[in-house]
Amino acid sequence: MTGKTQALPLAAPAVINRSAWPRRLKGLVLPVLILLVLEVVVRVGWLPSYQMPAPSEIAATLTDLAEGALWKHISASLLRVLLGFAIGAGLALVFAAWVGLSREAEAYLEPTFAGLRSIPSLAWVPLLLLWLGIDETSKIVLIAIGAFFPVYLNGVAAIRDIDRKLVEVGQMYAFSRRRLVRRILLPAALPGLFTGLRSGLSLAWMFLVAAELIAATKGLGYLLSDGRETSRPDIVLAAIIVLAVLGKITDGLLAALEKRCLAWRDTFNGQGAEQ
Fold it and tell me: CB of 84 within 8 A of CB of 124?
């Protein structure tokens, strides 16, 4: 015995690796419950089938469409959304960085952008049709407008919400402007930027429908219009379901990219039933 006590090493906290599938399956409970209730309500006759078809009828319509021109409509809409979102979000990130880093740029640009973002989406349609015609360009520009403002607003807010002390630390270590942006400003602003990108993507899908309802010969918005004109609510609801699924898939891909890029964060993720 030496009279000295040796400290025992602390055991590393156990990492609980729970599968995400049970949580994801919980998200299906409400949609499945709604479908079952609708099926019963329509079959009993509480809702007329010419207004609200049964989910089984909508599934049959989706199957028929999938064997026909549905994939042509999906590919057309998806291409328009991706192009419009890429253009709108790309320009928004450039202007957000400029305005967020420069009070001078904010003084010149912010009043104009504040006025433009208050214009309803449908108000752009006749102007774009007059300027660009009914080809793909007008649709892509309209989608880009829809994606621009959420990304721009969240980008500026993300830059302006960066802790000033972080910037002062970078200046104290004599970081160049480029290194300051790469090592401090960009990582600190990434959460807000991804929030803006996901909001912009959802608005891109909304503006897509506005564009395709007005002037299109293919696309999911055209499918919606065709179902309305032919008094086929099953086609309308089938197109809405496809839009919802595509929106969820694209948002999920962006969320996965966000999770990968922000894996370094140690943030609160909510409390579950199991601890």
Answer: no
- Residue 218: inside a domain: yes
C-beta of residue 95 within 8 angstroms of C-beta of residue 153: no
Residue 32 lies in a domain: no
pLDDT (tens, 9 = 90+) of the chain, 275 residues, equals 444 445 444 444 444 445 566 777 888 888 889 889 988 988 888 888 788 888 899 999 999 988 888 999 999 999 999 999 999 999 999 999 999 888 999 999 999 999 998 888 778 888 888 888 888 888 999 999 999 999 999 999 999 888 888 887 877 877 777 888 888 888 888 989 999 999 999 999 999 988 887 767 888 988 998 888 888 899 999 999 999 999 999 999 999 998 888 887 777 666 655 44
In a domain, 269, yes or no: no
Q: What is the CATH number of the domain that holds 200?
A: 1.10.3720.10
**173 φ, ψ (degrees, to nearest 5):** -90, 10
The pTM (predicted TM-score) of the whole model is 0.83
Q: Which amino acid is at 189?
A: A
d(CA 33, CA 38): 9
Nearest to 205 by CA among 225, 227, 220: 220
Q: Could you tell me the residue range of the domain that residue 176 belongs to?
A: 61-261
Domain total in the chain: 1
Task: Please report whether residue 1 resides in a domain.
Answer: no
From 172, 152, 154, select the one nearest 164 (Cα to Cα).
Answer: 172
Residues with Cβ within 8 Å of 230's Cβ and at least 6 positions away in sequence, in order, are none
Q: How many CB atoms lie within 10 A of CB 114?
A: 11
